[in-house]
Amino acid sequence: MGSLSDPTAATALCLADFERIAASVLPNDVWDFIAGGSSAETTLEANRTALDRVFLVSRVLRDVSRCTTDAALLGRPARMPVAVAPVAYQRLVHPEGELAAARAAKAAGVPFIASALSSVPVEEITATGAAVWFQLYWLRETGRSLELLRRAEDAGCEAIVLTVDVPWMGRRLRDVRNRFALPGHVRAANISTGVTAHQRAAHASAVAVHTSEAFSPSVTWSTLEDLRKHTRLPLVLKGVLAPEDALRAADFGVDAVVVSNHGGRQLDGAVPSIDALPAVARAVAGSCEVFLDSGIRSGTDVLKALALGACGVLVGRPVLWGLAAAGEAGAGRVLELLADELRDALGLSGCEGVAAAGQLRTTGVPGGQPGVAAPRAQAEL
């Protein structure tokens, strides 16, 4: 599982190919932990269905000879409007875990978001030289949350991503049925509690038990206000679906919101992220950046998100598929394919770059009429 010399990984032509490879090489319980959603997995499936329902109205007779995927995320350049989403415990799928994924992100020229539940300490992740954002779960002890914040800042992280849709972990039935627990070589490298995620329990996921012990279920707007006062780094709020919440977050001074239903892993029955995106983009009206998370599987998906008002997207599971298939090379190939597909989609839709995508019309999304993109993402066509 180490290089693209592996025949299966070397012949992968799209992200779905890597999904099939990962499913074939990972233990069943690890695959379920990565692939599964909460409860009946209605939202997990709906994320994909909703993206497939979106169609783009392409433009013609545009000069796309210099078509580029270059973008700016939180005011910093990126080679495409993509960040690697925070995903916990990446050493479950490859011995190097987050280190290999971060190096792949660096090579691809995109930010890597390190999870608070990463299996590698944040200091080692930033030492790769990648542009690292740190994803923060608010802990039961405020002092420990702020210590983790300082640790991320001291390590050189470039932004803080506060996840706000996990007062506790959603009931993920695959993990419950598997009595899922972390193997001994994988641990939460940044967070320690009296309860570990290694001890199997009857009718429960050990990971869910651990997070219930660690995470605060009483995160409120005052928490966000306190966090904003304690860091000068760009602050991103992840897990927003309601436009009212997005607007209020912008009023609290966040630099970006991530429209996300946690990949279908929290509230089952939550609206697909792509359906929620247009109203959120209109609500904030350029007062902060808007990213989309949950279900992105191709460059065309990225273009759809841009057309519906996003400044960029977060991609999680596909990077893990690449990591499982071929380590750093596999994760890098996933991001390379995504960039190639995005450039292809941009050019074929008549867009010379990312900014022009904000003016494309779409069909198939409630409220997805033209002109929903934030002003910073718009350009003359």
Write up this protein:
The structure is a single chain. With 381 residues, the protein is an alpha/beta fold. It contains 14 helices and 12 strands. It has helices at 7-10, 15-25, 28-35, 42-53, 98-108, 122-126, 142-155, 173-178, 206-214, 221-230, 243-251, 273-284, 299-307, 317-348; strands at 55-57, 71-73, 76-78, 82-84, 112-114, 132-136, 159-163, 235-240, 256-259, 289-292, 312-315, 361-363. The strands form 3 sheets. Strands 4-11-10-9-8-7-6-5 form an 8-stranded parallel β-sheet. It has a two-stranded antiparallel ribbon with strand order 1-12. α5 (98-108) runs parallel beside α14 (317-348), α11 (243-251) packs across α12 (273-284) and α13 (299-307) crosses α14. The termini are far apart. Mean pLDDT is 93; it is low at 370-381.
For the structure shown, list the relevant keywords.
about 375 residues, alpha/beta, eight-stranded parallel sheet, two-stranded antiparallel sheet, 14 helices, disordered C terminus
Question: How do you describe this structure in short?
Answer:
The chain contains 14 helices and twelve strands. The protein is an alpha/beta fold and 381 residues long.
Q: Taking strands numbered 1, 2, ... along the chain, how are they ordered across the largest sheet?
A: 4-11-10-9-8-7-6-5
Total of DSSP H or I helical runs spanning 4+ residues = 14
Oligomer: single chain
- Name the beta content range: 5-15%
Radius of gyration of CA atoms, rounded to a whole number: 19 Å
> Between the first and last Cα atoms, what is the distance in angstroms?
45 Å
Counted beta strands: 12
Poorly predicted runs of 5 or more residues: 370-381
Quickly give the structural class. Answer: alpha/beta
Share of helix, binned: 25-40%
Order of helices and strands: HHHHEEEEHEHEHEHHHEHEHEHEHE
How does the overall form come out from the CA principal axes? Answer: globular
How confident overall, as mean pLDDT? 93
Largest β sheet strand count, sense and barrel closure: 8 strands, parallel
